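Before the break, one more example. Copy the sequence into your notebook; we will annotate it together after we see the structure.
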Amino acid sequence: MNQKLLQLLDGAEDKYPHALEQQFPHVVNKIIELWGSPAIDQYFIDLMLHTRAVPREGFPPAIAKEIFDLNLINDEQLKAKQGVPISR
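Here is what the structure looks like once it is written out:
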């Protein structure tokens, strides 16, 4: 378990992307690098949508869910920092 990512997730082990870390460690490293920055939004888009001229295989559903969940957590944290109410 990457302690930096766990810290970014406010210690929420139940939100930790174990499968993503195991199968795509380079993606986890990039997410850690970009976490909380404006550039991470585009990175999540690039991961989840077909944005290249060359077709990609895509992520298995469990991995895609972990990426989506990380995107939501990052967004919620950003909104909280800005004082924007989080709708649930």
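The radius of gyration is 13 Å. The chain has one domain: 3-82. Try to locate both features in your own notes.
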